[in-house]
Write a structure and sequence with these properties.
The chain is an alpha/beta fold. Helix content is about 40%, strand content about 20%.
Amino acid sequence: MRITTIRHGETDWNLQGRAQGSRDIELNATGISQAERLAVRLANEPCDVIFTSDLKRAAKTADIINSCHNVPVIMSPLLRESSFGEFEGKSIHDPVVGAAFIKFLDERAPAYFSQVQGYLKEIVSCGKDNIFIVGHFGTIRAIICGLLALPTSDRNRFSIGNTAIHVMQRRGDGTFGFILENDTGHLNS
């Protein structure tokens, strides 16, 4: 089994450094272009099904990718980014907001990761060999930690750019390992 995780394309809030969380923000023109380049990059990769967050930025990215695959797309709120509460819409580059936001995420991460990883178990048992999962910064960190059997505290080890690809393959012993990590090469072409 091979699982490819994909972060959604850029939004205006990404560009402005604003925390999005569960707000339903759309891709901007750059984000659509990134998703289109990503679709070309993934066109020849095997894909049996695409799971995606139901938030517009992820769902649109999944739809653009699927234009080259024509496979079932399964949307789920269980793949949404965590709710950032009072921080949604605020600048994470503001030193005071940024410090409080990091503390908030540290407290929220265990419950959020448990939710995402619970749904990940369903995805892994869906009977498909080549799975794409389109999500968000936090979602993908939760999936990576889940597949690699890492504690939530290891989440900050992973960079996840807009439309970044992470590919993990299940090995003979049933564990997963990286084939590709944080690949955004399609954005340079």
